[in-house]
Amino acid sequence: GRLDDASALCAQMLQIGRASGDRVLEVCGHLVHVGLLTHRGELAGALAHHASAAAMTDEHVVAALRERFQPDPTITAQSEYVRLLWLTGRFDEARTALAIAERHVTGTGDPQGRAFVSLFAAELALVSGEFERAERIAADNAALCEEHGIASERLWCMTYLGVAKAARGDTATGIAMMRAGLDVFHAIECFVVVPFFQAQLAAAELGAGHPAEAQEAVDVGLRLVERTGERAWDAELWRVQAAILARGPGATTAELT
To answer: How much is the pLDDT for 251?
Structure first.
């Protein structure tokens, strides 16, 4: 969640690529900006960097990127592009972008790359309201991670699985899984996407009739946003905050807006 440090490094990469005439490094600089600016909620800037990378990329650049950098920045950026598209309301394009990412990663034979892309598949299914599909994707991804000993992606996918289970009505199990994942994220201070999970936990707690726990989850998410600058999830947090206030006694229009 150290987005300011990441911003400085991304800017440096882009500057060096341009100054040295290193087209591959410059493209990589644009690609990493796609994910970075998406997380910061600077969606127009992220779209501009994606367009710049696409304009400079051909099969030779892709081959060089995969040879010089690990993990493969083309797959990472394509996955983040899926998130960027749905955050801007372009769900059909997001599904097309996801299919491209899945096709590319399948060709690499890299199980961790497959697990990474599957996180975005589960997330897209969740925000599209396809909760059964999201649960299936997350469960299959958990099995893949178990098979290959992939710890980091497993942590995220188990938390997505909790979100899906809660959304499908298995609220107690879903809440327990989300809290288990969030406990680890907070313990290791890995806060990327955590505000999104805090919002989903809050929604589940509210649905279970626990407004105090829901408010606590939102408060944690909002504090994290202020701490890390990861503003991609602001709208989701405030949506749940409004729902909490609407359930309370004497809620006013001023509070809800």
So the answer is: 54
Structure tokens at 162: 């909790």
Q: Which amino acid is at 110?
A: D
Nearest to 77 by CA among 37, 20, 40, 127: 37
CA distance 91 to 69: 29
Q: What is the DSSP string of 203-249?
A: HHHHHTT-HHHHHHHHHHHHHHHHHH--GGGHHHHHHHHHHHHHHST
Distance CA 119, CA 157 (A): 6
Count of CA atoms in the C-beta half-sphere (13 A) of 109 = 0
With a cut of 60, say whether residue 203 has pLDDT above it.
Answer: yes
Four-residue CA torsion sign, 150, 123, 59, 55: negative
How far apart CA 137 and CA 122 sit, in angstroms, is 6
Q: pLDDT for 47-78, tens place per residue?
A: 999 999 999 999 999 999 999 998 889 999 99
Q: How many CB atoms lie within 10 A of CB 103?
A: 11
E-only strand ranges, the chain:
none
Q: What is the pTM of this model?
A: 0.92
Q: Which two tokens stand for residue 15?
A: 């500057």
